[in-house]
Every structure is written in structure tokens, then in C-alpha cells.
């Protein structure tokens, strides 16, 4: 019987250990924990079924290699260090321009010199600029952005998050997918919910509309408009508008009225609400996005397709919307300007 120790369950991604109850797909041989297979209800390694291939174990799955730059341990099949990004394996293949001068570091396309490397390694590699932005296609390497992402960040392409392949996350997120997938993997593996998202901290309703997070977007737009309305009412009730002819006079009148308890505590209360709500947004926006993406990708992967492919639906529902973000910005600022005009 095949020893599955060190291999991973295709559903949960956990390594098999001694004593695990393991079952395999009768068609392709993909291994699962029995409870994982029951939960899925079927084999989810669809690519093997479509291609008519049989699952094969990872060679030397338990072995690890040490990064020559930072000393971090990585899986044996990684090409780049998951800790610092350096190339783990040196390419000794002869290339048309691999003369001694180029190998010594005098530019061109040598392995170790300036200019472009064959295998890359970015700023942490052996010199040069590393692979091209989409995988270094000049020398026959893959030009698939997802493949380049996996190699650059040391991510296993078959990695799954909550039963979903990271390639599905990549297709859904699109813009800045590398950043978010690394966050999603961390949320899933470490069970944390906090991370810093500065755009969500500074411009929450605009950011959430941009990411199509409509529940959070409407919530924060409502908070923005409501606080603006309250502040406008507060100013209008505390200032003699008959003497006001310019915005400068409004600001001076407000400054003079800050000794009034109603004005002072009103402004303080609005400021506290704004700060707290934005801190919550900046800290939890990435986690909210992770839960939203996971839910929608799960729905897409489970529903039957009729008029479009799953990839098309992932791209249609995912991605970003600059138009919604722009409209949210205009709506919030136009509302504030209108209220200020009404005050005057």
C-alpha cells in the first residue's frame, strides 16, 4: 500500500500523519482524509479527471532545502525562498550568451552578472533584475502571471484555502492579487483577523466600493453622510447665520463657539466616532474581504454554469470597480458641499 505520510489531503491541505483515516478517489487516486472526502461529497481534483491523469505523490515531500541567502527552510520543490524571495536553485544550463565575462558580472544576460538573469531571484538573487514581470518568457519560461506569482512567493500552486484553490482566488481578486492571497493564506493558517489596510483606513467607503464590498461600503458611506449632517446641524444651531457671508467667517464662528458645551462635546463625539470607525475599517478590511471572496468563490464553484464559464463568472463578480469608487467619492463630497451651502 502506498505510504501517504508527508503528502497532503487535497481538501484541507493538511499533511497526512500516522494513524490518519485516508481514502482515495477510485478514479484518479487523489488522497483525502475520510471526513474531508465525506464533506466534499466527491473528488474535487477536477483537473486530473478532465485530463484523464492519475494522482502521483510528491517526490521527497518531507525533504527541505535551506536558502543560501537567509538560511530559511523551504520545501524541496520551491524555486524561490518563501522567506526572502532568493532563488533556491542555480541554473547551470548553458545559454547562448554565457561567456566568462558575462558570468563574472559584466552585464548582458549572464547567470550571475548585471542585466537580466536566466532564472531571476529579483533583488535578492545573484544579480540582475530577476525574471520579467510575467515569468521571464524570453528563455522559454512560463509567462502565466499566476505561475510567476507562485514561483516568486514560494507558494504551492495546489495550495487550498477553505477548500478553494488559490488559483480561483487569483482569478477573482485580480488587482493586487499577490498581496491579498498572501493575506488569505495567513488568515487561514494562523487564524488571525487583523492586518493593516491604509486605503481602508483613510478612505473607507471609497475603498469598499472599489473592492465591491457593498455592505461595508454602504455602511461607511452612511456614517460619513450622517456625521456630516449632524455637524452641519450643530453648526447651524450654534451660529448666527445672518452675519455670515463667507466660509472664513464660518470657521471663525465655530472656533469662537468651541467653549459652548454642546458644540465642544458634539464635535468631540463625531471625532471619536470617525476615528474608531476608521480604525476598525483599517484593521479588519482585509479579513472582511477574505470572507467575502471565499463565500462568493464557493458559490461560483458549486453552481451549474450555463451561459458562461466559471473563469468568466469569477472575473465578472470579482475584480475592482473604479467607477463605483469615483461615484462614492463624488456622492460624499457633493453632499458635504451641499450642506455647507445650505448653512450659508
Please sum up the structure shown.
The chain has 344 residues and is mainly alpha-helical. Helices cover 49% and strands 5% of the residues. Helix 9 packs antiparallel against helix 11, helix 9 (214-238) packs parallel to helix 13 (322-343) and helix 11 (261-302) packs antiparallel against helix 12.
- What is the overall pLDDT average? 75
Give the strand content.
Answer: under 5%
Distance between the termini: 84 Å
From the spread of the alpha carbons, the general shape counts as: elongated
The secondary structure category is mainly alpha
Q: List unreliable stretches of 5+ residues.
A: 91-142
State the share of residues found in helices, binned by percent: 40-55%
Number of helices: 13
Order of helices and strands: EEHHEEHHEEHHHHHHHHH
- The radius of gyration is 28 Å
Which strand order do you get reading across the main beta sheet? 1-2
Number of domains: 3
Number of strands: 6
**Main beta-sheet strand count, sense and barrel state:** 2 strands, antiparallel
Structure, described:
The chain is mostly helical. The chain folds into 3 domains: 62 residues, Herpes Virus-1 (2-Layer Sandwich); 81 residues, no CATH class; 146 residues, no CATH class. The protein is 49% helix and 5% strand. A two-stranded antiparallel sheet has the order 1-2. Strands 3-4 form a two-stranded antiparallel sheet. Strands 5-6 form a two-stranded antiparallel sheet. Strand 1 and strand 2 form a beta hairpin. Helix 8 runs antiparallel to helix 13 and helix 9 packs antiparallel against helix 11. The N and C termini lie far apart (84 Å). 26% of the residues are buried. About 15% of the residues have low confidence.
Amino acid at each position: 500500500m502506498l505510504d501517504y505520510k508527508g503528502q497532503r489531503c487535497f481538501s484541507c491541505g493538511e499533511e497526512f500523519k500516522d494513524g490518519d483515516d485516508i481514502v482515495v478517489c477510485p478514479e484518479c487516486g487523489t488522497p483525502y482524509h475520510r471526513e474531508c472526502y465525506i464533506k466534499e461529497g466527491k473528488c474535487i481534483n477536477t483537473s486530473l479527471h478532465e485530463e484523464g491523469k492519475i494522482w502521483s505523490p510528491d517526490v521527497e515531500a518531507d525533504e527541505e532545502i535551506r536558502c543560501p541567502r537567509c538560511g530559511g527552510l523551504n520545501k524541496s520543490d520551491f524555486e524561490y525562498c518563501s522567506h526572502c524571495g532568493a532563488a533556491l536553485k542555480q541554473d547551470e544550463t548553458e545559454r547562448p550568451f554565457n561567456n566568462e565575462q558575462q558570468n563574472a558580472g559584466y552585464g548582458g544576460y549572464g547567470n550571475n552578472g548585471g542585466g537580466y538573469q536566466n532564472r531571476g531571484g529579483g533583488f535578492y538573487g545573484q544579480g540582475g533584475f530577476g525574471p520579467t514581470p510575467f515569468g521571464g518568457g524570453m528563455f522559454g519560461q512560463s509567462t502565466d502571471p499566476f505561475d510567476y506569482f507562485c514561483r516568486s512567493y514560494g507558494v504551492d500552486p495546489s495550495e487550498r484555502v477553505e477548500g478553494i484553490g488559490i488559483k480561483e482566488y487569483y482569478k477573482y481578486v485580480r488587482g493586487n492579487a499577490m498581496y491579498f492571497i498572501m493575506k488569505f493564506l495567513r488568515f487561514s493558517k494562523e487564524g488571525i483577523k487583523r492586518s493593516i489596510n491604509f486605503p481602508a483606513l483613510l478612505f473607507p467607503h471609497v475603498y469598499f466600493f472599489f473592492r465591491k464590498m457593498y455592505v461595508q461600503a454602504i455602511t461607511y458611506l452612511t456614517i460619513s453622510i450622517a456625521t456630516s449632517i449632524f455637524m452641519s446641524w450643530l453648526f447651524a444651531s450654534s451660529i448666527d447665520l445672518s452675519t455670515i457671508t463667507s466660509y472664513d467667517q464660518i470657521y471663525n464662528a465655530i472656533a469662537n463657539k468651541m467653549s459652548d458645551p454642546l458644540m465642544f462635546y458634539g464635535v468631540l463625539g463625531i471625532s471619536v466616532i470617525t476615528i474608531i470607525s476608521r480604525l476598525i475599517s483599517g484593521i479588519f478590511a482585509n479579513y472582511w474581504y477574505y470572507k467575502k471572496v471565499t463565500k462568493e468563490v464557493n458559490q461560483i464553484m458549486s453552481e451549474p454554469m450555463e451561459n458562461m464559464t466559471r473563469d468568466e463568472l469569477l472575473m465578472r463578480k470579482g475584480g475592482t470597480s473604479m467607477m463605483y469608487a469615483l461615484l462614492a467619492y463624488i456622492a460624499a463630497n457633493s453632499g458635504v458641499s451641499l450642506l455647507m451651502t445650505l448653512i450659508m
